[in-house]
Amino acid sequence: MIVHGARDVAFALEVAAGRPIALLSAPGAAGYLGVAGFAALLTPHGALPLAILDAAAAPGHALAALRAGFPRVVLAPGLPAFAPLAELALGLGAALLPVAPPALDLARVDFGKPQGRMHLARWLDLP
Known about the structure:
Helix content is 41%, strand content 9%. The chain contains six helices and four strands, in the order αβααβαβαβα. A four-stranded parallel beta sheet has the order 1-2-3-4. By secondary structure, it is of the alpha/beta class. The two termini are 18 Å apart.
């Protein structure tokens, strides 16, 4: 799921109820929200291990995210820094992804309506 704020994180974790999920940043969020900013949304919920931070075409942000403990980081694959950063990620027990995985954008889910919860539950393939 693409999360944009603390409310999205809390809602996703509540609906998932302990099931494994991925919390993806918006495209390129490492550049405008920052590594520390996205971590600040996740850390109070203990959700950093679920994170995927999108660094777009910014290898410096990808490196900072890996050093900050993000388990998965998205970086444009055509960059010269991609291969060395992918190797570094493996050494850190993380993964550098060439594309973001398919995700439901929670900006389009109305948490105030029962349909919002049902839509998210369907996405997570929950009963």
